[in-house]
Design goal:
By secondary structure, the protein is an alpha+beta fold. The chain has 22 helices and 20 strands. It is globular, with a radius of gyration of 26 Å.
Length: 641
């Protein structure tokens, strides 16, 4: 508190006057200090036996701070509780909070809450903002999933606005040219972002649509600074960026693109600002409005075949969430159904609950190694089943087999049978977990977690799939187009791991109107009273589900602080490749690595991990304390009030 008072005093240019009376002479002396540290030194230098100290101004400052709306028990950045963690920041929020992977966007969302907005309003404003600040990760040219919890009715709904395949898309579309599934016009799915966000806004929104978009318009015109996360992908995709006039326009330092922009340099995105201006007046400007013809022309210029009818016919879907009664904790999970990643998350958490982990399971090195080994095995079992999953609305062939496999995957009894097969001494060969497997990857995703003063919550994950999507930006409207078609499984990718995969139905193959299988799992957890206690989700491809489960396990079972649960080095195993990914910058301790290697795990250092945004609500002392944390892996920062 002293540190916060000091900062406040210096920012407001307030001097502190201390009144004290010298007991021996009865004389009155005044002292003046400019900050709390000076005040403490000033008082400590006095002879305590000779004085009666009356500090007037500290009380005055407290009153002034309250009057100016400065909560001394809050901060404008990441916050977290001290219980069980190493974090020194003990700040929390009393009313609402927003956690995103961009500081400005958390603040914009926070401002919407302060103006009386619903959690949905804050989420929409924050998501549109991240499409400006982290334009490599998301934007109105993509799609996503939003989990909304209505506290009054104690009900959760899933808004699915994930991209779909064009009407002309065939299962063999990418067989001859696999790169076309990732880059160029054929990689672009029908964008659902705006129709999805507007649909949920129509149900829950309290503020005007235009008000939610305006801060992002201003930000795009003013310009944003390139962070380390974006800069890394600018370097990675240097050649593809230079090959596209739209991306060159904002990412190159000179006309010939001899030098790319880097960390700390500005991106002014005027064309995108103009597009958002139109969107603020007409949410359907992309799918059936001013930009529709231009979008189709853009995609055709890159060898795509999307049509105006594809854009016009796109429909977001309201789905019933997957739920899980976390019996050991007396909590309730709400997460995304297929084609979202909630099925995998639920399967993982069911196996975790079978172990009923506690802090005791990390109390010694030997126990911690065993716990991490068990988690890696849980991840392998769960991820080995992903080829059986897909868009349930578009599975026609082998539908009975598909429904059976999904039911088995979601069945707690079957999850327990898998858990009991885990060998505490050693990991196993891939065929032990399942006879075939395929995976996809992405990097261009963002997540937003929100809770408002009424206890409503939103967990939303939006994406353009890979960083910079399909690697082209419209030279007219500034939109970066997604490459969501890369998330389909093809015959080529199925056959890359097990030789007998040709006998297996392809439930996530390319197809018209089909939503590709996703790893995103925006989730909300409530207690038995129906009050939200946790909001979590993330970005980062196939590691999203693993990292979300990891953070939930660390927080809920092992009593970590939210900040430490998110920042903790993670054991990540996506089954293929058959190794544990050890994240550079947050490496597992050497003794943990050695212990896992003794259990025959292969461990490789890796440059990426999922980026988790979380909120934790503590009601243990009768008061509501809201803690919010944005993952430092993407330099985000939470905000609240």
């Amino acid at each position: 508190m002293f540190e916060q008072l000091s900062t406040f005093i210096q920012e407001k240019n307030i001097s502190i006057t201390v009144l004290y009376i010298r007991a021996t002479s009865k004389s009155i002396v005044y002292g003046c200090c400019t900050n709390i540290r000076e005040l403490i030194r000033f008082l400590n230098n006095m002879k305590r036996s000779h004085v009666i100290i009356i500090i007037v101004v500290v009380v005055a400052v407290l009153i002034l701070a309250i009057g100016l709306g400065v909560g001394l028990n809050t901060t404008d950045g990441d916050t977290d509780e001290s219980k069980g963690g190493k974090t020194d920041d003990l700040g929390y929020y009393l009313n609402g909070a927003v956690a995103t992977d961009a500081d400005q966007c958390s603040q914009i969302g926070r401002d919407m809450l302060k103006e009386g907005g619903h959690a949905v309003d804050a989420a929409i404003a924050s998501l549109i903002c991240t499409g400006v600040v982290n334009l490599h990760s998301t934007g109105i040219g993509g799609g996503g999933f939003m989990t909304v919890y209505d506290r009054k009715n104690k009900k959760a709904e899933i808004y699915d606005y994930r991209e779909t395949g064009p009407a002309s898309l065939t299962p063999d579309a990418y067989d001859e040219n696999p790169d076309s599934q990732k880059n160029g016009g054929l990689a672009v799915g029908i964008p659902g972002e705006l129709r999805g966000l507007h649909k949920v806004h129509g149900v829950f929104g309290k503020l005007s649509w235009k008000k939610l978009i305006q801060p992002s318009i201003d930000l795009a015109r003013k310009g944003t600074i390139i962070g380390k996360h974006m800069a890394r992908y600018i370097v990675s995709y240097d050649a593809l960026i230079k090959a596209d006039d739209g991306l060159k326009e904002i990412l190159c330092k000179d006309e010939d693109c001899n030098t790319m922009k880097g960390v700390g340099e500005y991106i002014v995105n005027t064309k995108y600002a103009d597009t958002l201006e139109e969107v603020s007046n007409n949410f359907d400007a992309i799918n059936d409005g001013k930009f529709s013809i231009q979008i189709v022309d853009d995609i055709k210029s890159k060898n795509g075949n999307m049509t105006l009818e594809d854009l016009k016919n796109y429909t977001p879907i309201v789905r019933t969430p997957y739920t899980m009664k976390m019996k050991n904790l007396k909590l309730n999970l709400y997460t995304t159904p297929l084609p979202g990643g909630g099925a995998v998350l639920k399967n993982i958490l069911t196996m975790i609950e079978g172990y009923n982990f506690t802090k005791e399971d990390e109390s010694t090195l030997e126990k911690k190694i065993l716990t991490y080994h068990r988690l890696a095995e849980i991840f392998k079992f769960s991820y080995s089943k992903r080829p059986y999953l897909g868009d349930p609305d578009k599975v026609t062939d082998n539908k009975t087999f598909f429904d059976q496999k999904v039911a088995e995957f979601l069945d707690p009894f079957n999850a327990e049978k898998l858990r009991l097969r885990i060998n505490d001494s050693s990991t196993q060969e891939p065929s032990f977990y399942d006879p075939y497997f395929v995976t996809t990857e992405d990097h261009g995703t963002t997540h937003v977690s929100v809770i408002d003063k009424d206890g409503n919550a939103v967990s939303a994950t939006d994406t353009i799939n890979y960083a910079f999507g399909s690697k082209f930006r419209s030279p007219v409207n500034g939109i970066i187009y997604n490459n969501e078609m890369a998330d389909y499984f093809t015959k080529r990718s199925y056959g890359s791991f097990f030789t007998n995969s040709s006998k297996t139905p392809l439930f996530n193959q390319p197809g018209p109107g089909r939503r590709p299988l996703s790893s995103t799992c925006p989730s909300i957890i409530t207690d038995d009273n129906g009050d939200v206690i946790m909001v979590a989700g993330g970005s980062g491809g196939t590691r999203i589900t693993l990292s979300t489960a990891w953070v939930m396990m660390k927080k809920l079972y092992m009593n970590y602080s939210l900040a430490d649960a998110i920042e903790d080095p993670r054991v990540q195993h996506t089954f293929s490749p058959n190794r544990i990914s050890n994240e550079k910058g947050k490496l597992l301790p050497d003794d943990i690595v050695a212990g896992l290697e003794k259990k025959n795990h292969i461990i490789k250092e890796y440059t990426s991990n999922a980026i988790i945004q979380g909120i934790w609500v503590d009601r243990s002392n009768g008061d509501t304390h809201i803690y919010a944390k944005s993952d430092s892996r993407k330099e985000g920062k939470a905000a609240g009030y």
